[in-house]
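Sequence in, structure out.
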Amino acid sequence: MTTQDKAPTQDQVQRFLFDQTAVRGELVHLQSTFQEVLDRHDYPQAVETQLGQLLAAAALLTATVKLEGTLSLEVRGKGPVTLMMAECNTGRQGGDQLRAIARYEGEPQAEGLQALMGEGQLVITLDPAQGKRYQGIVALDSDRLSNCLESYFANSEQLPTHIWLEADQQQAAGLLIQQLPDDHNNQDPDAWNRITQLAATVKAEELLELPAEELLHRLYHEETLRLFPAHPLAFGCTCSRERTGEALASLGEEQLQEILEEEGKVETQCHFCNTRYTFGKEDLSEIFGQPGAKNLPDGHQLH
C-alpha cells in the first residue's frame, strides 16, 4: 500500500483506490464533530448511536458523490423517534461542516434504526451550489441505516455499494466500498468480491479506533491501494441572524407584531445548535421596512 497522507486527524474523510480495478472507497472518522452535536442536546443512548451513524453517513455520501453544496439525510418515522437529520455543507473554511438533530418522545430504548423509527422512510437530498436539486427516497426496511443506503445506491445510482457504520458515545465512523462502471483499466475482474469480503471482516472497535492507514493495512495489506490526502470535517451550523429574520418575515407582520406586544420581543432558537436570536421593535421594522429587505442589525453571524 502506498499513501499520500500519513498525518492522522480526529475528524476527516479519506478516499482510497485499488489500482487496476474498478473499486474505490471512503473512510470517515468523527469525534469532536460528533461531540459538538451531543453537547447541544441530551439524547438517550440509543438515539445517540443512530444519530452518530447518520452523521458519518452524510460525510461519506458527500465525499462519494463529490457534491459541491449541501447533502442532507432525513429519516422520518412513526415510532418513538419521529425524526433524525444530518447535513453536510461543503466549501466551508477549514473543511466540510456537519450538523445533526433528532426528535423523539419519552426515553427510547430500542436498538436499531427500524425499531426506533417504526414505519418510515429515508430521504436523501442533494442541493448543489449550481444545478438542480435532487431527492431520493428509500423505505426503512432494515434495522441498519447502512442497508437502507445500499438500497439507494443499487436502485437510484446503479452502483454496487457496501457500507459499514458504527458509533458509540464518543465517536462515529464509516467505511464505504463502491464498484465503479467497468472500463479497460480494470485488470482484476475478481477484485470486487475479494475486496468486499475482506471489508466485511472489519470489527466495530477497529472502525472506530484505528487510524485510516492502519485499518486499511489490516484489511488490504495484500492489495495495491492508494490512500489520498484526508479532507477535514468539523461541526458547523448554517443558521444566522439574517436567515432567521427572513424566516420570521414569512410569518407575516401582523403575527409578529402580536408576539411583540405580548412578549416585548420575538425570540427564536436554532434547533441544530441552540443559538438564540432576539428581535425587538426596531428589528422588525427593518425587516418589513422595505420590500425584500434582508439586512438585519448585527450583520451575518454563523454558529
